[in-house]
Design goal:
27% of the residues lie in helices and 34% in strands. The protein is of the alpha+beta class and 167 residues long. The chain has one domain (3-60, 80-114, 137-161).
Length: 167
């Protein structure tokens, strides 16, 4: 069961987009790091310390994309703003001390995104994509806390306010 460190990204617009297809009801978040061999307790203290060093962010979403692999993941694509890139870099620098993240979440390889739907076939992906396009998702969304998530199903185990001053 993976452990995820993410930015919580509450948004009525993103919830409406996801509700067009995915009815799971789990919280929306932008994953920053995913660990297969670490538990919540392994990453919680460091995540909390990093959250205290960063101010709340605004995430700019600029469209919808798809990752293809074992499953099709449809997502709201987030712009790699300097503040987001710095938070991601610092978080990985600190968490690397306790263990490695999945390679596709490492700085230089990571694609910032907010998952809206996960499906198993190309036909379902096409249907979901069409439905997700009915709700415009572009815009700025608040991110005020880091969360540590376990699952599946995704369950927020810890929350840490972004309470520092950056910029």
């Amino acid at each position: 069961m993976p452990t995820v460190v993410a930015l919580s990204t509450p948004s009525e617009v993103l919830e409406k987009a996801r509700a067009r297809y995915d009815r799971t009801g789990s919280e929306l978040f932008l994953s920053l790091a995913v660990y297969d061999d670490l538990g919540v307790e392994d990453v919680a203290v460091i995540t909390g310390a990093v959250a205290g060093d960063f101010a709340p962010l605004r995430i700019r979403v600029h469209g919808i994309g798809t990752f293809m692999g074992e499953h099709y993941v449809l997502y709201a694509a987030a712009l790699m703003a300097p503040e987001l890139a710095e938070l991601h870099r610092v978080l990985h620098r600190e968490l690397h001390l306790v263990g490695p993240s999945r390679p596709n979440y490492l700085p230089g390889r990571w694609v910032p995104h907010i998952t809206l739907a996960t499906v198993s076939t190309a036909a379902k992906a096409a249907s979901a994509y069409t439905q997700l396009l009915e709700v415009p998702v572009t815009g700025l969304y608040p991110a005020r806390e880091l969360v540590v998530v376990s699952g599946p199903p995704p369950t927020v185990e810890e929350r840490y306010q972004l309470s520092g001053v950056t910029g």
